[in-house]
Amino acid sequence: MASSFDASAYDTIPQTGAAGSLALVRSLISAAQPDASPAAKKALKRARAKAETLRTLFSAAAPQKVASVTRVADTNMDRAWSALEQYLGAFADLDDDFHPHAREARELHAVLFPNGTAFLKLPYAEQWAEGDALLSRLEAGDSERAIAKLGGKSFVDQVKTRHAEYGEALGVTKAKAAAADTASLAEPLREVQLAVAVYARVLSAAVQNEELDPNVAVQALAPIAALRVRLKERKKGGAPAEDGASPDPVSPEPLPPVT
């Protein structure tokens, strides 16, 4: 009876992210037979417990900034740079006879905004990079002090604040924090995958010991085989974006119980 069952197909579990692994455990629970052996139920319950821990941590992790937040940050950044450019431009339009620092303002405007604010029309990431370079030039020399002498310190402060917010919204200045969040899920994810592997081995051993019908085992472990196929298709570029291996948001609902 065991000869029709290929245990080697379950020696390794397909590697996927948190969302894919949670979807796999959910599918395994649904595919499990109600009259499964105590050993199989124990292994599956352990996989569920590990998955619940991962789900809780995954749900608590800081979500990526949504598009609306990025748009707001972009708008605020545009306004801040435009305000500073217009402020310097207004001084630059004055004749030297009417303000002692008019010439200095013209020089500042020419150095900082040689093309005006055209860079604000660039894609988000490129705009941030241009703004970051501009801010570095402003802070490197005497430009910031000179602007403060003109009474424009508040404009510079606003640019700095909005630039930091923009970088955070784009995930640029928070890259290290995001990496830390990913790393914090690595061990719980590994434990889920190990628990699933143990469950698969328990069923495989039962088949090899002629304690479980091979067809029942194949059905119970079908989610593993299906995930492996989807991952191969994804690697070839043929998998649909909504498959279980995709990093989609995790359901807030707890995994179903193992009965």
**N-to-C SSE series?**
HHHHHHHHHH
> How many domains make up the 3D coordinates?
2
| Total number of helices | 10
Unreliable spans are 239-248
What is the overall pLDDT average?
A: 83
Biased composition (Pro residues): 249-259
Region (Disordered): 235-259
Note down, in words, how this protein is organized.
The protein is an all-alpha fold and 259 residues long. The chain folds into two domains: 2-62 and 176-235; 67-170, no CATH class. 66% of the residues lie in helices and 0% in strands. The protein is rod-shaped and about 100 Å long. The two termini are 27 Å apart.
Notable traits:
about 260 residues, mainly alpha, 2 domains, about 65% helix
Structure summarized in a few sentences:
This protein is mainly α and 259 residues long.
Q: Topology, pairings included?
A:
Elements: H1 18-31, H2 38-60, H3 67-92, H4 102-112, H5 124-140, H6 143-149, H7 153-170, H8 175-208, H9 214-220, H10 222-235
